[in-house]
Specification:
Length: about 250
């Protein structure tokens, strides 16, 4: 479903990503872990072209993201309308919830399917209510975001991404801004999505959750993939010294 080849990202002289290769199969859950500044969030932002890679290739469901071959085989950046079409297939949930404060919970969820997908309002509302029920917030459909807890807002943000029926869901430290007592509710929603077969790439510092929900753990440091393995193998017997040192501090 996702294929990344030799992905690099530079800001001036500073190279954040140094030739990342990554494959994510349909219905697979991959967690990216590693120390702060290792490039994990930058990988996610390149996967939906919020950040344009400096070099390398990203394919989602077989289609190259961001670029198309023009005359003579030269790559050209896709028109913005085409980019928006591609982004619609890639859900993104951020650390901060980014809900529109002047719209109700329901309005936050139906806006994109109507404007981007062309969904009729009745159908969008029906889908939104089903998703709110799924994340345990149907009773809050008419509430304003500011009246919700952080955990509730994050569950609304997840429902909003799912309303677009994405092929892949990217989650960037979605529990880092939450109170500890609300984290479990959000993680339970993500666990349910994994059980239902949603393809997901998660950046997380929740090691126990990564171990519980991931099909594969990818450990990054200094802009490179140091190690990847099934969670039981990685957390029990990491091969790379840097991974061993990281786990000794966080577990």
């Amino acid at each position: 479903m996702v294929s990344v080849r030799q992905l690099t990202k530079r800001y001036g002289e500073h190279e954040i990503l140094k030739g990342i290769n990554l494959d994510v199969a349909a219905s697979e859950v991959v967690t990216l872990i590693g120390p702060s500044g290792s490039g994990k969030s930058t990988v996610l932002r390149c996967l939906n072209f919020l950040e344009a890679p400096t070099s390398g290739e990203v394919f989602v469901d077989g289609e190259r993201l961001g670029y198309v071959q023009g005359k003579g085989g030269k790559l050209q950046r896709r028109p913005e309308a085409d980019m928006n079409r591609q982004r619609a297939e890639i859900g993104m949930v951020f650390q901060q919830f980014n809900l529109w404060p002047h719209k109700t919970v329901l309005q936050n969820i139906i806006e994109a399917p109507m404007l981007v997908r062309g969904a009729q309002r009745d159908a969008a509302v029906e889908t939104a209510r089903k998703l709110l029920d799924r994340v345990g917030l149907l009773a809050k459909q008419d509430a304003m975001p500011m009246t919700l807890s952080g955990g509730q807002q994050q569950r609304v943000a997840i429902a909003r991404s799912l309303a677009m029926q994405p092929k892949v869901l990217l989650l960037d430290e979605v529990t880092s801004a939450l109170d500890p007592e609300t984290v479990r509710d959000v993680l339970d929603v993500i666990k349910g999505l994994a059980f239902d077969g949603m393809t997901m790439v998660l950046v997380t510092h929740e090691m126990s959750f990564a171990r519980e929900v991931a099909d594969r753990v990818v450990f990054m440091d200094e802009g490179v993939v140091m190690e990847e393995a099934p969670p039981e193998q990685f957390f029990s017997a990491p091969r790379h010294e840097r991974a061993q040192a990281f786990l000794s501090r966080v577990l």
